[in-house]
Amino acid sequence: MNKKSIIFSTFIVISLILVGCGANGNQSEGSSGDKVTLTLWHYWSGHLEEVLQSNVNDFNETQDGIEVELTFVPYNELTQQLLIGATSQDVPDIIIGGINEVQFYAKSGILENINEQVENSGLATGIYENIAAIHKIDDEFHGLPLHTNAVGLFYNKDLVDEPPVNWDELTNLATDLTEDGKYGFSASAHNSQHGTASWIPFLWSTGSGVEDLGSPEAISSLELWKNMYDESIMPKEILQKELEEVGVDFYNERVAMIIGGSWMIPALEEEAPDLNWSVAQIPKDQMHASVVGGESIAIGKGQSVDEAWQFIDFLMEPERQLEWLKATGNFPAISEVANDPYFQDDEVRKVFAEVISTSQGYGWGENHNEVNTAIYTAIQEALVGGSTSEEALKKASEIIQPLIEE
Amino acid sequence: MVKQSEFKRIIEKSKDYTFLMPASLFLLLFLVYPIFFNLNLSFRDVNVGNLIQGERELVGLSNYVTVLKDPLFVKALANSIVFTVGTIIFSTCIGFMLALYFNKPFPGNKWMRSILLIAWMTPIIIIGTVFRWMLSGENGIINEILMNIGILSQPNYWLTDTNTALFSVIITNIWISIPFSMVIILSGLQALPGNIYEAAKIDGANRFQQFFYITLPLMKPTLLVLLMLGVIFTFKVFDLIYIMTAGGPADATQVIPFLAYQLSFGMYRFGEGAALSNISFIIIGLFALVYLYFIRREEVM
Q: In Å, how far is B150's CA from the nearest CA of chain A?
């Protein structure tokens, strides 16, 4: 009996060791072949993944030297996985991630500096200043925008004849449209990026910014939301709703106007084909403002830079870009592409194409997550936490100020 | 000659120890190493700025000081305590009542007992989502019922209102914990000797006297185990909070484990996150010590 167990456990230990060696052996074999295999991390599923895969297939067929392989990483885990990988110098060759995360990734040392390649290729010319800035650290490119999107005011045309242009019009119209179980206006106040991205256009519209949250202008922008929330013109449960869930209330005609993202359009068309809707710029205080989102493509630090660049160059080709944008329902970051009739002759796409050319991203480098947390907490504190807008923003400002000054 | 037998003995002994190998290797790798790694991390300044490149400077206790000084820590600790105490008291009491009920033989007993276990077997992500729907202020069934029987005159936004959010999450957690309490208590009850009750009956003790003077004292060891496990399970709650409120609204349901997660994986302040999880480890450790003290006293008695 004794002997048997010893033999058995020895067997297990030995087989474990062998398995370990086996795996290692395989890996080194793979990379020693004459074909370079590039790993690409992305967080898309469904249709977007198919579009990406078909582009990758095209690329793999055009040449023999490089093979790009896709790896799906869930959206919420991408940053964690990249950081974990980077601690052991093991990041993917190519990364497709959120546009507002580029600063954070680059400053954390995950991304390769690709300024030389970008400048030589001429891809940088024509990218909107505001979007190019998001991809630069010390004026050097660390990634390129693959496509962009933005938030805007979605409105139900059956209820809203003329979309509101300024805050007073928004409040008045929303008040009129609010009745028994229906709301005039809705936006995400979720304790995540969703809440921050939905409110920050209002902050920017006053001419203020996150570096100046204590200012009367900043306070007035939160006050606008708080008043509508207190009057139940905005639904009470927006604190628990992400942008997509706010969108669901819009499909179901429970709200007349929402702050929504351009990426919601395909879902909107599919889920509510009969809904009569359109898009306008977010109502303004001083000027129209919006938040730019989207995805960027970048190269992992210390990986096969030259080969990875070939793929990016292939993907960013203007004609392929336009096909890509059509297939994914996203928007260009290059004015030349934005002037294509595809964007200019469509009522909705025209609005977003214009919004994107004038709005900013909201990446705050390595402090991205602290700033984001401080802002959505302030929104929630003002709406339900018993603080006034001033108190809530002052608290956020006390957290953000030292971070920015560092 | 003597030496040889000594040698043989050691060989014999060491053969026995080889049986410990797999278990101790496993513990070393997956328990001891992470604990010490975390301890080390908590004394260093580790954030996104220096995670990948640069020195992870030793900063002594400064992470602990930062965490403890954060007003959010006090709030999270208070919430954690309310959450744990509230859950334990109610789930144990209700679990006890159910256990007493199912301890009596009646038709369909086993069948119903198994159904009750469903609550415990269902993944938290499903329970959390279902309760979110039920507690919804717009069209949740709980508001509907309360308004129909006249307790509420207008809908209450359970998870959006800072006054009721924590309470609502506690109710959900009580619902999850009841079956576990019931099973443990029931197994304790079934092990109680029947002849004591017969003797008590002959002496004229009524049901309440039987419960308070016989059942409860005899159940003390079982209850202690249950409380101990319950406190540990409940104090380290993460998934339910993550699914139902993510610590909101306005930090009304922020608890220690979730705050530690946010520090580490939301803000990537790994040093502070590690410090906070160590603090939470110490708090749970204190509970364990209290438990050991009681057990020891039980045994002496």
A: 20
